[in-house]
Design brief:
Distance between the termini: 24 Å
Radius of gyration: 19 Å
Largest sheet: 8 strands, antiparallel
Number of helices: 8
Number of strands: 10
CATH topology: NADH Oxidase
Structural class: alpha+beta
Shape: globular
Number of domains: 1
CATH class: Alpha Beta
Strand content: 15-25%
Length: 235
């Protein structure tokens, strides 16, 4: 295993931006309470991330084998094309914030805490991305996440975690029996070099979605991923 662990990640929370996002920047009675929570979180937060370089060893019609582990997804298979190296990863807000959030009984403050943890997760993901680009001099990349599309279901988290190794011991992220991650504010996926811009959102019809990164393209799957339309080369 050649995992890279990213720790000591700064968590510089944009408090004015958070208050605006939560629509309480003009409501002093709420802004004061949220500010107090944010300062608590800033003192506790230890966002972390882990990733590793892995190699594509074989490809089938709807599968790829990465470091001996079979991943089943037509979209992933086509997206990888002639790609030979990939980067499985996990980023998390950290167990410290997860435990802190569970101690909050007030429903509204729990909602704010959830938003604060999302910002910590974002810090972890950004630090992971910067470290990966710096170490491997990557150009344009794309990523896919188990559970984001029906084509690559959440159950495939187990295979992704097998490729990654001991992320529970390394950064404190584990899978539940239903393949969800704990802490809940964690993200996992496979990042890979690409010449064509790709976002999961292009294949996801859910609307509205606050995290949408690209418009839904209703015809994209048929044009690019349908077995009758696309015939990726075997390896």
């Amino acid at each position: 295993m050649n995992e890279t662990i990213v720790t000591d990640i700064p968590f510089n929370l944009d408090l004015p931006g958070l208050l605006k996002k939560l629509r309480i920047d003009g409501r002093p009675e709420y802004a004061e309470r949220c500010t107090r929570l944010a300062r608590q979180a800033a003192g506790l937060a230890r966002p972390r991330a882990a990733y590793r370089l892995a190699y594509v060893e074989a490809k089938g019609e709807n599968t790829v084998v990465v470091d001996g582990v079979t991943l089943t997804s037509r979209v992933l298979r086509v997206n990888l094309g002639d790609v030979h190296r990939v980067f499985p990863f996990v980023a998390t807000c950290g167990a410290e914030l997860d435990a802190w959030s569970k101690s909050i009984d007030d429903m509204l403050e729990g909602f704010w805490a959830d938003a604060i943890m999302e910002e910590a997760l974002r810090a972890a993901f950004d630090a992971l991305s910067a470290d990966l680009v710096r170490r491997y001099d990557l150009g344009q990349t794309a990523m896919m996440n188990p559970g984001s599309l029906a084509d690559w279901p959440i159950e495939q988290q187990a295979e992704l975690f097998r490729i990654l190794g001991g992320v529970n011991e390394q950064i404190g992220v584990k899978l539940t029996d239903s393949f969800l991650m704990v802490p809940i504010k964690s993200v996992s996926g496979l990042r890979f070099p690409t010449e064509t811009k790709y976002e999961n959102c292009q294949l996801c019809p859910r609307d509205p979605c606050p995290n949408r990164r690209a418009p839904y393209d209703a015809g994209l799957y048929e044009r690019q991923y349908s077995p009758a339309k696309s015939k990726p080369s075997s390896q």
